[in-house]
Design brief:
With about 775 residues, the protein is of the alpha+beta class. The chain folds into four domains: about 220 residues, Arfaptin homology (AH) domain/BAR domain (Substrate Binding Domain Of Dnak, Chain:A, Domain 2, Up-down Bundle); about 100 residues, Pleckstrin-homology domain (PH domain)/Phosphotyrosine-binding domain (PTB) (PH-domain like, Roll); about 110 residues, Orthogonal Bundle (Annexin V, domain 1), CATH 1.10.220; about 280 residues, Ankyrin repeat-containing domain (Serine Threonine Protein Phosphatase 5, Tetratricopeptide repeat), CATH 1.25.40. Helices cover about 55% and strands about 5% of the residues. The strands form three sheets. A seven-stranded antiparallel β-sheet has the order 4-3-2-1-7-6-5, covered by helices on one side. A three-stranded antiparallel β-sheet has the order 10-9-11. Strands 8-12 form a two-stranded antiparallel ribbon. Helix 16 packs antiparallel against helix 17 and helix 25 packs antiparallel against helix 26. It is rod-shaped and about 185 Å long. About 15% of the residues have low confidence. Pfam families: Ank_2, ArfGap, BAR_3, PH. This is Arf-GAP with coiled-coil, ANK repeat and PH domain-containing protein.
C-alpha cells in the first residue's frame, strides 16, 4: 500500500506535514465534487436511457404495425440489451460511487473534524505552557500536565487521521477503477450481443435487400403504367359525363350494378338525398357512407315492378314498386335512368326467366318454376324459406357438399337438376343458361313444397352417378374447393354441356331399362286406378255420410264467399259457364257434390308393347309414368327430348305420362326442364285435359299456374272444364272457374300497369295464387 502521508512526519507535526494535510484535504474536496457531478450525470444518463428505451419500443411497435405483423411475433430486438446496459451503469457507477462518497468520505470528514479540534487544543496548551511564570510553581505544573495530556491525545488522533487519509487515497483508485471497468464490461457485453443479433439478421437483411431492389423495379414499372393510363384517360372525350353502367349478374363481388342516385324520402317534406345504390342478391340497397350497413329498399326484386315517372317536376326519375312500398329515385341523365331501369328488369328476368316457348310470359304471371307464389301481404304457411328449406335439402345424402367442387355447406341449388352448389359454382351454372341449369338460393328464396320435394327425391349423389359415370375411367380430375374459377368452369361445362363423362347405354341395356320401367308402371296401375276414381269415391263417401275428411277443399259457405269475391264487376255477373248445367253461383258447385260420378279417364291401362326403336326419349316416356325421377334425369342426360312424342302411342308425351303416373313432383321436374304444358296428343288433349279426366287436382293447379290453356278443346270439342263437369269433380270445376274468372278480372281490374308490366299484387292475383297453392299443398299432403 503506498503511503501518501508519513506517520513519522505526523508525529513531528512539522510544516511539511501540515502542507501535506492541506493538499490532501483539497484533493479530497475536489474528488467529492467530481464524484457528486459524475453520479448526477449517471442518473441523468439512466433517466434519458429509460426514455430512449420507451421511445425505441414505440418505434419498433410502429414498424410492426406498419408491416402488419402479428402481435405474437417474438423476434429479438436491441431494446432489452439497452435495458441491461443502463441497469449495469446504475449498479457500477451510481450505486458504487454513491456508496464510496457516503461511507469513506464521510469517515474522512469526521476524522478531519477531530484532527482540527485537537490541533487547536494542542496549540492552546503550548501557548499556556509558554506563558507560565517561573515563580508560580503550581501554574507551571498545571500547564505542563495539560500540555502532556494534549500531546498524547493529538498523537492518537493524528495517527488515526493519517491512517484514514492513506486508506482513502488508496481505496479511491480501486473503487473508481472498479466502477469504470464494470461499466466498460457492460458496454462490451452490449455491443457483443448487438453484433450477435445483427449477425442472425444478416440473411434477412440480404433477403430484404433483394426485395427492395425488386420493389424499386416494380414501382418504376407501376409509375410508367400509371403515367400511360393517365395520359390515355386525359386524351378521352369528356363531353358526355354519363358513366357507362352495365348489369352483370355474375360479378365477383355479387354486386350486379351500382352507382349514385337521388332518393326521395318518405317524410312529409319529400326531401331528395344522394345515395350510393346497388343491386345484389336480388335486392336493391343503398348506403350513405362506405362503412355504413346497407339499407335494404326492396327485399326481393322478383316481386317488384319498375316504371318511368314523368308526372313530377324533377327529370330522369323512375319508381320501383314493391308489395309493401314504393321508392322514387332520380338519375343524373336519361341514359343512366334507362340503364337502371334495364338493370332492375334484368334482375327480375334472371329470377323468372324460363326456357319454354311461353316461359318468359308465364314466369312473370306465375311463380312456381322460379319464383315465390307469395306476395308481401299473403300468408306463407305452406312455403318454406331460409333455414327450413336448407335443412331439408342438405339432409339428403351427398347434399352437404357442393355437387361439382365438394365445398361444404352449399347455399345454392340447381332446381332442374336437383343438386346443391356453392356460390362460385352457382355463378358458373347461371352463366350456362336456364336451358342447362336454373339456380336458386337455399336461404334467400322461398321454396314451394312441390319444388322442395323434387329436390329431396334427387340430390348430388344421384346426379353424379349419371353425369360422372366415366370420369375416373377417363382420368378427369374433379375440381376441389379453392381451385381457380376457370378450371372449375371448364369442368362444369364438360360435365353438363358437353356431357363428356356420361356412360352411354348399349341397345340391350336401354331395352332392359325400358322394359323394367314399363313393369314398374304396371305395378303402380292399381294405385293409379284408385287416383283416377278418387273424386268419385269421395262423393260417394260424402253421400254415405262418411266424415273422414272434407270432400272439397272449400265448404259451401267458403265457396259462396269465394265466388262473391270474384263476382264484384258488372262485367262478370253474366259469365258464361263451360256447361249449361253449371250455374254461376256456389249452388252449382254444391249440386255437383251430389251428382252421379262418371269416369272419363283413360279407358284402358297403359300396356307395354315392343317398340320399333329404343331411345332415351322412350326411357323418359316410361320413367315419367313410373314416377322414377333418377331414370328421368338419366334419360335427359342421355339426350332425351323433354317434349318427345311417342308416335306409336297416340302421340303422348312424357308430361302426359307423368299425369298418368299420378305424381305431381314428376310433372314439376319435367316443367322445370322446359316441358311444354300445352302440347297435345293425337286426341287433341294436353296435360290439363288428362289431369282433369284422372281427377288429379294438384296437377291441375300446377298446370294452371304454369300457363296451361284451359280453353283448349280436344277433337270432341271438350274443354277441361266440360270434362270436370261431366266427372262432377267439384274441386277441379272450382279451380277452372276461378282461373277463368281471374283472366276476366285482369281485364276488369287492370292487374297490368299503364306501362303494360304485370302487377302481382292486385287483389285478384293474390287471391287466385293463394287458392292454387292451397290445392297443391293439399295434394302433396295426400300423396
Amino acid at each position: 500500500m503506498k503511503i501518501t502521508v508519513d506517520f513519522e512526519e505526523c508525529l513531528k507535526d512539522s510544516p511539511r506535514f501540515r502542507a501535506t494535510i492541506e493538499e490532501v484535504e483539497g484533493d479530497v474536496c475536489e474528488l467529492e465534487s467530481k464524484l457528486d457531478k459524475l453520479v448526477k450525470l449517471c442518473i441523468g444518463m439512466i433517466d434519458a436511457g429509460k426514455a430512449y428505451n420507451a421511445a425505441n419500443k414505440q418505434f419498433v411497435n410502429g414498424i410492426r404495425e406498419l408491416a402488419q405483423q402479428s402481435t405474437k411475433d417474438e423476434r429479438r430486438q436491441g431494446v432489452p440489451f439497452l435495458v441491461i446496459l443502463f441497469d449495469q451503469a446504475q449498479r457500477s457507477i451510481k450505486t458504487q460511487l454513491q456508496t464510496f462518497v457516503k461511507d469513506d468520505l464521510r469517515k474522512f470528514k469526521e476524522a478531519k473534524k477531530q484532527f482540527d479540534k485537537v490541533s487547536e487544543e494542542k496549540e492552546a496548551a503550548l501557548i499556556k505552557n509558554a506563558q507560565a511564570p517561573r515563580n508560580k510553581q503550581h501554574e507551571v505544573e498545571e500547564a505542563t500536565n495539560i500540555l502532556t495530556a494534549t500531546r498524547k491525545c493529538f498523537r492518537h488522533i493524528v495517527l488515526d487521521y493519517v491512517l484514514q487519509i492513506n486508506v482513502l487515497q488508496s481505496k479511491r483508485r480501486s473503487e473508481i477503477l472498479k466502477s469504470m471497468l464494470s461499466f466498460m464490461y457492460a458496454h462490451l457485453t452490449f455491443f457483443h450481443q448487438g453484433y450477435d443479433l445483427f449477425s442472425e439478421l444478416q440473411p434477412l437483411m440480404k433477403q430484404l435487400g433483394g426485395q427492395l431492389d425488386q420493389l424499386v423495379v416494380d414501382a418504376a414499372k407501376e409509375k410508367r403504367d400509371m403515367e400511360q393510363k393517365h395520359s390515355t384517360i386525359q386524351q378521352k372525350d369528356f363531353s358526355n359525363d354519363d358513366t357507362k353502367l352495365e348489369y352483370n349478374v355474375d360479378a365477383d363481388n355479387g354486386i350486379a350494378m351500382e352507382g349514385y342516385l337521388f332518393k326521395r324520402a318518405s317524410n312529409a317534406f319529400k326531401t331528395w338525398n344522394r345515395r350510393w345504390f346497388s343491386i345484389q342478391n336480388n335486392q336493391l340497397v343503398y348506403q350513405k357512407k362506405f362503412k355504413d350497413n346497407p339499407t335494404v329498399v326492396v327485399e326481393d326484386l322478383r316481386l317488384c315492378t319498375v316504371k318511368h315517372c314523368e308526372d313530377i317536376e324533377r327529370r330522369f326519375c323512375f319508381e320501383v314498386v314493391s308489395p309493401t312500398k314504393s321508392c322514387m329515385m332520380q338519375a343524373d341523365s336519361e341514359k343512366l335512368r334507362q340503364a337502371w331501369i334495364k338493370a332492375v328488369q334484368n334482375s327480375i328476368a334472371t329470377a323468372f326467366r324460363d326456357k319454354g316457348d311461353d316461359g318468359e310470359k308465364l314466369d312473370r304471371k306465375s311463380s312456381t318454376s322460379t319464383g315465390s307464389l307469395d306476395s308481401g301481404g299473403e300468408p306463407k304457411e305452406r312455403s318454406l324459406k331460409g333455414e327450413s328449406a336448407l335443412q331439408k335439402v342438405l339432409a339428403i345424402p351427398g347434399n352437404s357438399c357442393c355437387c361439382d367442387c365438394g365445398q361444404p355447406d352449399p347455399r345454392w341449388a340447381s332446381i332442374n337438376l336437383g343438386i346443391t352448389l356453392c356460390i362460385q359454382c352457382s355463378g358458373i351454372h347461371r352463366s350456362l343458361g336456364v336451358h342447362f341449369s336454373k339456380v336458386r338460393s337455399l336461404t334467400l328464396d322461398t321454396w314451394e313444397p312441390e319444388l322442395l320435394k323434387l329436390m329431396c327425391e334427387l340430390g348430388n349423389r344421384v346426379i353424379n352417378q349419371i353425369y360422372e359415370a366415366r370420369r375416373e375411367e377417363l382420368g378427369a380430375r374433379k375440381p376441389q374447393s379453392g381451385d381457380p374459377r376457370h378450371e372449375v368452369e371448364a369442368y362444369i361445362k364438360a360435365k353438363y354441356v358437353d356431357r363428356r363423362f356420361i356412360r352411354r347405354p348399349s341397345d340391350e341395356e336401354l331395352r332392359t331399362k325400358v322394359v323394367s320401367l314399363s313393369k314398374q308402371e304396371k305395378r303402380l296401375s292399381s294405385s293409379s286406378e284408385e287416383l283416377r276414381l278418387g273424386p268419385c269415391l269421395k262423393v260417394l263417401e260424402a253421400v254415405a255420410g262418411l266424415e273422414a275428411r272434407r270432400d272439397s277443399l272449400f265448404c259451401p259457405d267458403e265457396l259462396d264467399s269465394l265466388f262473391s269475391y270474384f263476382d264484384t264487376s258488372s262485367k262478370l255477373r253474366s259469365i258464361k259457364s263451360a256447361d249449361s248445367g253449371i250455374q254461376n253461383s256456389a249452388d252449382g258447385s254444391r249440386e255437383m257434390l251430389a251428382a252421379t260420378p262418371s269416369n272419363n279417364s283413360l279407358t284402358d291401362e297403359m300396356a307395354f308393347y315392343e317398340p320399333k326403336e329404343y331411345s332415351p326419349g322412350l326411357q323418359l316416356f316410361w320413367a315419367s309414368c313410373a314416377r322414377s325421377l333418377p331414370d328421368m334425369a338419366e334419360a335427359l342426360a342421355h339426350g332425351a327430348e323433354v317434349n318427345w312424342v311417342n308416335t306409336e302411342d297416340e302421340k303422348r308425351t312424357p308430361l302426359i305420362m307423368a299425369v298418368q303416373g299420378g305424381s305431381l313432383v314428376t310433372c314439376e321436374f319435367l316443367l322445370q326442364n322446359a316441358a311444354n304444358v300445352n302440347q297435345q296428343d293425337a286426341q287433341g288433349r294436353g296435360p290439363l285435359h288428362h289431369a282433369t279426366m284422372l281427377g288429379h287436382t294438384g296437377q291441375v293447379c300446377l298446370f294452371l299456374k304454369r300457363g296451361a290453356n284451359q280453353n283448349a278443346a280436344d277433337i270432341d270439342e271438350k274443354t277441361p272444364l266440360a270434362m270436370a263437369v261431366e266427372a262432377a269433380n267439384a274441386d277441379i270445376v272450382t279451380l277452372l272457374r276461378l282461373a277463368k274468372m281471374n283472366e276476366e278480372m285482369r281485364e276488369a281490374e287492370g292487374p297490368y300497369s299503364q306501362s303494360g308490366q304485370y302487377n302481382p299484387n292486385s287483389p285478384t292475383e293474390v287471391q287466385y295464387r293463394r287458392c292454387m297453392q292451397e290445392f297443391i299443398s293439399l295434394h302433396l299432403d295426400q300423396t
